[in-house]
Design brief:
By secondary structure, the chain is of the alpha+beta class. 58% of the residues lie in helices and 14% in strands. The protein has 9 helices and 9 strands. A 9-stranded mixed beta sheet has the order 2-3-4-1-5-8-7-6-9, with helices on both faces. Helix 5 crosses helix 8 and helix 6 packs antiparallel against helix 7.
């Protein structure tokens, strides 16, 4: 059957569901998991993985790859790149009685490890071991592997495994996790390990917003106080003081917008990571072990208040921004109204000046008509005297008297025409 042409992204989108599959794990195995916060060095992790592959003479992943699973013979390496971090898993087969003294990461060159790009967010040494024949002795397990610390643990994977940790970072920079396999399928074991480390990773990534929220709280308090002072002043100050208040409001709004721009992504990411933590805990299908906190209980105890703080600060910031915007709009309207009133006063003064100028112009026009008439009539008088001297019977005084109204009328008419034409051209 011939199908219409494929959408250009059909295969890529279809294969996305198969991307980043969990490793097939068979107990006993030691695993080291590292999550590196990239901090602007995105892409360098892929180059580091290719460099390691070339050092061990195995085929490196493609330059465009965002995840890879490489078999180095004595160990396996799983690398994945995410939006803000990349993560590595080193997997080494071990004996049943293995301890944390020889972690899986010891298989990697030390100079390569120290040169990895980014900053360590999570580093965990994991042991996936066959389940003991009898019940797990929690006290002995804590003393042997966790320095006597209180353990967090649960039955996971629908009862097919038990997981234990203390969520503490040791002097070597690693935390520890033990998983006892009680019948996990190979891929199921990989999914259990992946969910456990993802819970820890997403928990810390979500908490990145918490120090930011605590640091922002006092700033918001000061900004809210400033807004209250401005609002009180708005109801008492005169119109002349309103531009000063508007300048204060504008500066306050700029500071709030700047703060939002710096924190909005981090707060949004915190909520997204928090949702992922819940999803991974749900997928873990954990059940309580007598006397121990489950992973969900331990994580929720401190993560939920931290996320609630971040949400509250983000909401507080957004509400403050809206309040400042409303106050700015109100004050801007008041300033605009005041300016409109001032403009009207200016226009009224200009109209009065125009009327005065018109009256003055009319006065000047009258004087101009009189002056021009006087000079022209004088010329007529001279002409009449010349004609009288030439023998014509003309009385110069009579001629001048007759010429006065005629010349005055013509001059007045000419001045009016000129003024009308100038007024028409201006319009």
């Amino acid at each position: 059957m011939l199908l219409p042409e494929n959408h250009e992204q059909r295969e890529e989108l279809n294969d996305e569901v198969h991307a980043r599959p969990p490793e097939a794990l068979e107990a006993p195995v030691a695993i080291t998991y590292i999550a590196l916060f990239e901090g602007g060095r995105r892409g360098e992790d892929a180059r580091a993985v290719r460099e390691l592959a070339e050092r061990f003479s195995i085929t490196p992943p493609d330059e465009s790859a965002v995840h890879a699973s490489l078999d180095f013979g004595g160990f396996r390496l799983k690398w994945e790149r995410h939006t803000e971090f990349s993560r590595l898993k080193v997997i080494v087969p071990v004996k049943d009685d293995t301890t944390f003294q020889t972690p899986a990461i010891s298989q990697l060159p030390e100079d390569w490890i120290s040169g990895l790009p980014g900053r360590t967010m999570v580093a965990t040494n994991i042991l996936l071991l066959p389940a003991p024949k009898g019940p797990v002795d929690i006290e002995a397990l804590s003393q042997t592997h966790f320095g006597g610390n209180t353990l967090i643990g649960a039955s996971v994977g629908g009862g097919k495994a038990e997981a234990y940790t203390d969520f503490r970072i040791r002097s070597d920079g690693f935390s520890r996790l033990i998983v006892y396999d009680n019948g996990l399928a190979l891929r199921q074991a990989g999914r259990v390990i992946q969910r456990l480390v993802e819970i820890d990773t997403y928990r810390l990534m979500a908490l990145l917003a918490f120090p930011m929220a605590r640091g922002l709280a006092p700033k918001l308090t000061l900004q809210e106080r400033e807004l209250a002072l401005i609002a009180n002043a708005m109801s008492a100050e005169t119109a002349q003081e309103e531009p000063v208040l508007l300048d204060r409001l504008t500066r306050l709004q700029a500071a709030i917008e700047s703060g939002q721009a710096e924190t909005d992504y981090r707060f949004s990411a915190a909520r997204a990571y928090y949702d992922l933590v819940h999803r991974r805990i749900k997928d873990l299908r954990e059940a309580r072990l007598e006397g121990l906190q489950t992973f969900g209980e331990f994580t929720e105890r401190r993560l939920l208040p931290a996320i609630n703080t971040c949400v509250a600060i983000a909401d507080r910031q957004e509400k403050l921004s809206r309040r400042v915007a409303r106050a700015t709009q109100l004050l801007s309207t008041r300033v605009d109204v005041a300016r409109e009133g001032q403009n009207q006063e200016v226009l009224a003064r200009m109209a009065r000046r125009a009327k005065m100028q018109l009256r003055l112009q009319e006065t000047v026009e009258g004087l101009s008509v009189a002056a021009v008439t006087y000079y022209v009539v004088g010329l007529v008088g001279y002409a009449a005297k010349a004609l009288e001297a030439g023998g014509l019977p003309i009385n110069p005084n009579v001629a001048m008297g007759i010429a006065i109204p005629v010349i005055a009328g013509l001059v007045w008419f000419g001045v009016r025409r000129v003024r009308e034409q100038v007024t028409k051209d201006d319009a």
